Structures
1.
Amino acid sequence: MAHDPDAPDPHDLDDGDPLSGPVPAPDVAAEPAERARARGFGDLVDKVLAGRAPAAVPADDRALLEVATAIRAAARPIELPAARTSALIEAALATAIDRRAGVRPGDPARSTVPIVPVIPLARRRARVLPWAVAGAASAVAAAAIAVLVLRQPRPAAPVAAPATASLPESQRSRPADPLIGVIGRDRAGDAAARLDVIYADRLDGFRERTLAGPRRAGAAP
Amino acid sequence: MIRAAWPRRLLGVGLFLAGLLAGAVVGCSRGDDDRAGQPVTRITSPEERDRDQAIDEPLMLALSQAKNFHHKARVYMSDGKLDDATAAVRAILSIRFPADAPEAEDVRLDARALLAKLLLGQGQADAAMTTVEEGLATASRDSFFLANLFTVKGEVLQAQATAIDASDHARAVALRQQAIVALDRSIAINTALQAALMEAR
């Protein structure tokens, strides 16, 4: 039996390399070995997507994995959480700086970049809000105290001078001493007569004030 | 880490509370602005003082009532009804005058002087003295009416001394001495008031 140099080497077909084998016809059923290889590659893709990539991957499988990852990324872009994104960016920047400084990446003991924990924006707002409220309240307090201290006392309203003269004495309620004078001992009990005099005098004043009309502004009738 | 955050939280809470407290203090202290510049202490204006002291209807009504009671007492006295006359005069003490009307004190002191003389005329010297002492205790100023009441007090004391002169001469002497003191007080008041009035004229 002559050996055809173009015919594939049976050892090559058996070494598990599907790329170097003949392309099977479309309607040909998959062989068990082919199914096993497909199942194994599918598990590998799942592990990689789950972040549990094996330490060593054959070169052929790695090429297929890159293709599968590219296809998946093109079909469904992945959006990382903000914290994860920030952490990745920080890590990438730190690595770049360390490389420039000659530090081997992944050696935190010799890293020149301080490791700053990434704080999510929501947590940062939660920390800043109470301080903003307290600061605003303090500012209001300071302004209020300044207003209280610096406010000039309002000058007292000047006492308006009386627009008119006082009531005549005859129209005012007053002691009756000038009207009665000294009461003699012989008239000590003559209260009725003295009251007649007082009443007559006050009646004159009352009539003068009420019947003569208001002689000055603001006088009560 | 948690312990280190507590002082800062307390500081923030303290600042917030200080702001609220200062706002409340300032807000309360601005209450006087609502009075639109009016002084806190209100002083009676001359117009208001005149209006308060003017001769008005309540004063005239009170004087008229006192006048009627005096005439009523005079009628009872003319009929010899001293008890009724005393009651009429005593009613004058219950008349309500306008507050701070000077005439009120004058009329009441004069009514007490008459009432004391009526009681003394009925032999009630102790009641007369009580009436006089109550009047002297309520006086707010020196007046001719107060001096007259001291004069009546002297008369009452003199009557009391006369009544006990035979039985208790020493007590009678003491009462007469008190009567002289009361009369001297009356004279002093009259003298001072007359001098003041003369100086005012």
2.
Amino acid sequence: MDIILNTGSTVYQGAIIKGGNKFSPGYTREAGYCNISPEDYEALGRPWFVRVTNEYGDSVVVRAKKTNTQQKGEVFIPRGIWANTVVTPETESTGSPRYKNLPVKIEKCDGPVLEPEQLMRANYLKGKVDTGKKYLDRTTGQAGH
Amino acid sequence: MISNVVKTDLVKKEGEVICCTDVTCPVCGMSCDDVEIELTPTSVTTKNACLMGDAKFQELRSPHRLIYPTLNGERVSWQEALEAAADILVKAKRPFFFIGSETANEAMAVGIEMAEYLGGLVDGNATICHGPTVMAVQDVGQVGCTLGETRNREDLAIYWGCNPADSHPRHMSRHSMYMRGFFVEQGYQGRKMIVVDPRRSPTAAQADLHVQLKPGRDFELLDAVMVALRGLELNPDTEKVTGVSEETIKKMAEMIKACKFGAIWVGLGIASTHGKHHNASMAMRLTQLSNDYTKFVILANRGHCNVAGFNQVLSWTCGFPFAVDYSRGIPRYQPGEYSCVDALRRGEVDAMLVMCADLGGHLPKKAVEHMMNIPVISLEIAPGPQAFVSDVILPGVLDGMECEGTFYRMDNVPIRARSFCKPPFDFTESNEHTLKQLLKIIKEKKPKE
């Protein structure tokens, strides 16, 4: 289904990222979902999960949430690595990517929603055997105090 | 003069417990300066901070804080990390310096100096935030005011494409809707609120009038409101194009004319959607027109703390607010060419210094893909997407908590943020100090010809 994607902040997603918990399950809970209007939710076949795909063919799986806050034909994903997987880098010569009003395709799927670290690996380490980079996850985070 | 009113006994130490009042919050653009902190060796208790602010203050005692430098994921000494970072930047042909927010102007100034010294590109968080709004300020000009004025005078708030209930949780209670002001003694009962947003956000749910337009039709709707303000006939297709009825547009115009002091708060809803700076220009023109009938101002709801500061520091350094290229020895300004997302997407950057920003998480995938192909140096405080894409990680210092600094609030008023504790390491005192050490090594490795 063709649909318009808007992304933006929510206070709970904000609390997760400001608290430095970007590699925690809380981030998936607060940023890995998609608000869908009741009409579109029915048209999609009452999904648990949806796959959102942009014009480049990049796609991301997020939880589907039926909500009255959306108009028909629009969906909302909170700001974060899930939304930014499909946000396109066209800036209309302003430097600011298309975080809002982005035409995408949305379809019902079986999931699962990738955890932040899995998503980063799937997006950026795919097909690269040795990038020379290592990553820090939460478990290897440097215990400060 | 200021020294007469500045309190000096703000930080009190009782044993291991540190109590501090009037702390400046380094999270969102409002830079709330009334936060109170009680810091013990194991816990942080905050008063007056919002959910996001409290989360940030908890970083002082978080278990995941990055406290030692790393090179390719391995622990190294501070000097080794700085040497590696300097090597990367000195060897690069087109280095990119990304100056994030939530850090002080003093650190930003050193980052910009480094970009100028090495002839690199420099950009900041403004580019992915209110960059288009800043372009509109250059285009049209902004009728602005301080947050104190809106707090005491504003009786009509128009939240256009923003949702302060989520993005600036204390905005409505401190500076606009719910505050009792000098000229608005009734508080919220004396103020009206219009929210223009395609979705029914938590802010829209509190509005006197929620204008639910079609996404990307801000320019057309702003134009239609200007037509209605002038008392002219609206185009018959207006409702079809904008999704807003003629009746609602006329009601908006009437509310604008009826108020004594109105403010348009613009958010990323106009800057990140189709039309970009043209939308913001139109909003500024609407503000100018509204001043024919009443007093009206426009302010940008800047998302990050001190993101306005980057525009200020770069402007006083070279005359341009963001997206500057120093490669020819002189500053050149061109959003869309020297801006971060565009330069990364074209793949022309061959090394990157990212201070205090999570580009790994907040840039579009196509831009981050290029960051994975080049060496990246980060000043970072917690593990996450930015640490994931970084080769060299230099532990960051929390400005406004562990070191002093100046933040520009979203109304471009500078606020001096005090410190009340020290960083959990001794190799640096502040992000400014880190960058100065790095710049010194760079100058040794690559002396000016």
